[in-house]
Hints:
Blueprint: H1 4-28, E1 35-36, E2 39-40, H2 47-50, H3 52-67, H4 70-77, H5 80-99, H6 104-109, H7 114-138, H8 141-157, H9 161-164, H10 166-204, H11 208-211, H12 219-245, H13 247-257, H14 260-292
Antiparallel strand pairs: 1-2
Amino acid sequence: MDLEIFIGPVIGGIIGYITNSIAIKMLFRPINPIIIFGKTLPFTPGMIPKEQKRIGTEVGRLIEEELIDISILKSRLLSTEICERIEQTIKTVLQSAVDSKTTVEDYIVDILTVDQLEYYKIIAIQKISSVIADKIKDSNVGDTIVDEIFNVIQDSIGAFTMFVGDSFIDGISQKAKVIVNKVIEERAYDQVLDIMNKETDEFMQKPIGELTEHILEYEDLIIQIVLNTYENFIENQLILLLKKINLANIVEEKIISYSPKKLEELILSVVKKELTAIIYFGVILGAIIGFII
Length: 293
């Protein structure tokens, strides 16, 4: 049997295997450019490390513009399954709140530190007290108080007012209004602040269950409000949200942040079988060419 007939296909197959293996290897290697006598050797670094930024940009653009279909995404987010999950979550949260023995303060401390809670509580109380005090001052409540007091006095003394005269009473009333309004202006903020501090301290020590004991009576209404708000957001704000998220930029930055080795591992985890098939296809093609030649 003439063995020479196999020499061409064997050599061709070996060449095909080597060339395709080197070609695939050169996608990822070398990681860094090779510089000799100040000149960068061609094909260094490998194509993937060299074009990593462009790959990140193109993959991000592809995902954002081609793979994400807004209508399908909306349909999925507004599906019966998702809405039922939201409804069940609301029911669970409301029931948990009603059954909770945790105080408002303890609940917040699980989210914030004690120092943060104290800081925000002080700021909130001061701002609310300032607003309330300003409203009290602007309402001229002092005039109302004095008018009511003098109405009671006039009703009490009745006919005796004729001995002092209306002008005398009006004069005293006006002076009293000035004094009362001045006292209110000077003390309103401190008084409101003191009340707010006491009420806030009491509120913070109340169990959440006590504050929400009647909330289940409005469960259906709360669910409807939340679902309507959610559906309106998905219908009208989803596109704007995706633009603000800038998914393409997130993907690009993520890919660029990978080391070349990590990027290689990720790519190979997806296309390793296909690249191996290309190598073996090179063997078959090389063998065929060797046989023909």
